[in-house]
Amino acid sequence: MAVPRYAKKKSKLPPMFYILGSLVVLVVILVIMFISFVIKDKKEQNKSPSLPSKPVSDTGSSSTGNSSTDSKSSSTEPPSSSSSSVSASVIVSSKPDAAPMSYLDDALLIGDSISVGFSAYGALPTANVLASRNVSLDKIHLNKKVYSTPQGDLTLNEALAGKSPKKIYILLGSNGIPGLENTLHIKYYEEMLKNIRDKFPDAIIYTQSVTPVTAKCEQDRPVMNNAKINEFNALIKELSPKYNAYYLDISTVLKDSSGTLNTDFAEKDGIHFKAATYQVILNYYLANAK
Which stretch of DSSP H or E encloses residue 184? Predict the structure, then answer.
């Protein structure tokens, strides 16, 4: 049967066309996946800082008033800084009669995401630091599993089990500043301090001032203000002798002339520290060793 004149044979596309088409589709998919990843990453970086996450701040909103509900802090790990340098003008050198670095070999630092930086930046060995994100005194009061360890998530008491430090440095309180009244907050602090003293009756215990925040942090997050931090620190200082603990006002070497955290020390969130700042704090420890 003759093929009608109007019927045309379908032209076959060359194999190369299909190969190129497949490559184009693959490239489009990869581009979409890359864009999605970038958007997700930016969202993670832009989350509200808490200490600590800092960190990125580890200081979030704790439970308020007399509430015993779990605090909802949004802390993160200390942020990675584009520049970890600290101006030479604000580096605090150790005193000539300061203790050697070996003084801290049998010490344990207990803290939150601000303290995570001691081990994360190599200022202290990991074994000498007990710190995690989102640790607050109200959570410790409620016996929450606030510390992430190789053995799993543990309460403070569980994390301290089996340890025998000769010196203990406590750096806690930042996460409670936004949401807890100082009068309640210091009760939680005392409960924690008494518990540690009872567990380690012969240890040298150092309590520490809650670290200041930058002026910009105060402006951006009014609940994180240095006036309230200073008031809480005064309560810690007053409380410490009751439990034979030495109070270290580390804020004195971290503040600028206006009484806020020196921006040379601070990460972008205005709460956490650059890597070199931890050496400044260690120098203060050694210069004030008992």
Answer: helix 182-199
